Every structure is written in C-alpha cells, then in structure tokens.
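Marked as duplicate of an earlier ticket. Keeping the data here for the record.
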Amino acid sequence: MSLISDQYREARGGYSRTNTITCEKCGSFVCSYQKDGPGNLRRMYIDRITSPAVSISKKELLCPQGHLLGIKINYEKENRSAYRLFVDAVIKTVVSSKK
C-alpha cells in the first residue's frame, strides 16, 4: 500500500504512517488510515481512509456493530471533509511509517 504524498502531508513535515483503526468497544475493524504528522488522532480525513469496512458517505461514522465513533464535519481550516472522532472511540495500531 503506497502513501499519498501531497500538500497536506508536506505541511505536516512529510512524516506519514498507515494505521489500522478498530472500534474501542468491540474491537471490530473499521478502516485503514494514513495519519500525517505527529500528535493524537482527533479527526480522520475522508481522502486518507482506505479499505473501509463501513460506509464513509454517511453523516455518522459507525463501526460494523453500530457503535458511534465520530461525526462528519467540514474542516474549515483546510476545507476538507473529515470525521471528528469522539475521545477513546477508536484504537489505532501503526502498520507502517515512512518519512
């Protein structure tokens, strides 16, 4: 799986990693996600979600078992669609990282 390299990745220092996102309550696989830059996972940009096990076109992000993980927003600072994640709703596991 190749990482997306664009202006957003470069703005965050060029460091990216692929994460496996699972539901904290039931452990169900939700998606793979490319996290750019350092810090916590507070929002997931739609264009960085790969291999979703759930629909990413809905207003709410739900795990396959129906647990609410986040709500779709338009991140105005960058004018990008994203899911704002609730605190401790997901578990992220690093699969690979690349500078």
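See parent ticket for discussion. Residues 57 and 73 are 12 Å apart (CA to CA).
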